[in-house]
Backbone:
């Protein structure tokens, strides 16, 4: 680990570009260490194609941050982030909506709370304007995968090129428009509360008709730039997934595993789950149904699901461009840019995949930018942690065909003692990693 001399107080200012998940976490960590921050956010001066809320940390895809239990990599990551003082996890818990074992939020309340907390910090100055050049000095680029074209071009020039992939958002319907005569309430495997999810079952005949309509539906046009790029596996449009095989979605987003329809006493042939979109439970999103179908086609095809025959769509699914840099060649495990001292990248643009993974990257970039100014050692979480494993993954020069990565136990070293039961093994990995992180933070 490198250690530097503390810099003069007059130079203790960092420019953070972007007030998404990574940007707000970076700004928060810097402010907590007494570092002045200029936080740049182009909304509402300019919105990306996927954004509509003026607030910070806006969710553009699912409103779920995945599982909370420690026996899940996503749960372990959130526990690590809490230990490191995460703003987003704190706000997510305060604005949570029921979602079984997952941490899902009322997206508007979540964004509002994050924005309120950021604006309350005297160390943080928010500047509402589009950044079109990479500033001099200490900078954290957390512009996200939807950075403006002007800034994206500057990043491309700096990095010598970039990769892109598609990302898609699922539709949202009103709760009152769901036909409950053709639906039932149940969490998969009875985890969480029974009313966390509305299940929309289909028999074989209904599924066959729906499947044929889905694979033959008309997609919305994409820009020529996007047509040259591939579809990212982590957020694949439902119609693309369906085109890969007759039963692909029946073993994916529409899997009936862990469910029994009380009206028939049997497991459905296929099943779509609807998850609460807000605290009041007035809106539900179609879980796993990210799509790029034309709006009229979404209404026609998705209404073929019996429980959605009269569905009122609050928002149709949309597809937008995502961008990430070739981090293994460009970044260190502290998220610092190898070609320029004092420049850091954070968030999904670094190749971490997911809301909380992006926020975690912001935490680490913020801590390391502060440590650089204060003359402290670089901070990279222990390799036994999910956060540390992700930091090492995005900076691993041995990775030749770099693709985004989310939280996964597969990134962690094996246990010294073999545990056959997967649930117990994952819990042991989590306990080991969290213990190592507590020890590391205690030694800071």
Residues:
């Amino acid at each position: 680990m490198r250690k530097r001399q503390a810099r003069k107080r007059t130079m203790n200012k960092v420019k953070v570009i972007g007030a998404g998940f990574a940007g707000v976490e970076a700004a928060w960590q810097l402010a907590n260490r007494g570092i002045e921050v200029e936080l740049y956010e182009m909304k509402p001066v300019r919105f990306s194609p996927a954004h509509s809320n003026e607030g910070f940390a806006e969710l553009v895809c699912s409103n779920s941050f995945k599982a909370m239990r420690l026996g899940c990599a996503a749960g372990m990551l959130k526990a690590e982030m809490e230990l490191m003082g995460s703003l987003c996890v704190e706000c997510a818990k305060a604005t949570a909506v029921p979602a079984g074992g997952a941490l899902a939020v009322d997206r508007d309340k979540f964004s509002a709370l994050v924005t309120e907390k950021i604006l309350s910090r005297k160390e943080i100055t928010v500047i509402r304007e589009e950044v079109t050049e990479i500033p001099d000095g200490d900078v954290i680029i957390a512009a996200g995968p939807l950075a403006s074209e002007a800034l994206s071009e500057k990043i491309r020039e700096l990095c010598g090129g970039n990769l892109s992939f598609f990302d898609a958002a699922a539709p949202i319907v009103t709760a009152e428009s769901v036909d409950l005569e053709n639906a039932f309430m149940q969490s998969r495997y009875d985890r969480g509360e029974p009313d966390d999810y509305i299940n929309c079952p289909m028999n074989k005949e209904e599924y066959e008709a729906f499947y044929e309509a889905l694979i033959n539906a008309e997609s919305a046009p994409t820009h020529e730039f996007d047509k040259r790029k591939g579809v990212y596996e982590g957020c694949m449009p439902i119609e693309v997934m369906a085109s890969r095989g007759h039963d692909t979605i029946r073993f994916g987003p529409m899997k009936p595993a862990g469910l029994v329809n009380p009206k028939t006493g049997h497991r459905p042939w296929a099943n779509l789950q609807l998850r609460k979109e807000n605290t009041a439970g007035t809106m539900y999103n179609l879980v796993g149904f990210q799509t790029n179908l034309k709006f009229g086609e979404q209404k026609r095809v998705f209404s073929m699901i019996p429980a959605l025959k009269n569905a009122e769509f609050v928002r149709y699914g949309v597809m937008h461009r995502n961008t990430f840099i070739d981090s293994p060649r460009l970044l260190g495990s502290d998220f610092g840019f190898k070609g320029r001292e004092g420049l850091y990248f954070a968030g999904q643009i670094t190749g971490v995949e997911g809301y909380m993974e992006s926020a975690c990257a912001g935490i680490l970039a913020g801590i390391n930018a502060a440590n650089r100014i204060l003359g402290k050692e670089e901070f990279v979480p222990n390799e036994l942690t999910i956060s540390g494993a992700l930091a090492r993954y995005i900076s691993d020069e041995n990775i030749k065909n770099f693709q985004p990565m989310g939280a996964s136990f597969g990134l962690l070293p094996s246990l010294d003692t073999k545990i056959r039961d997967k649930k117990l093994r994952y819990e042991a990995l989590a306990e080991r990693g969290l213990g190592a992180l507590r020890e590391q933070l205690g030694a800071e």
Notes: The mean pLDDT is 89. The two ends are 13 Å apart (CA to CA). The domain at 9-162+325-438 is CATH 3.50.50.60 (FAD/NAD(P)-binding domain).
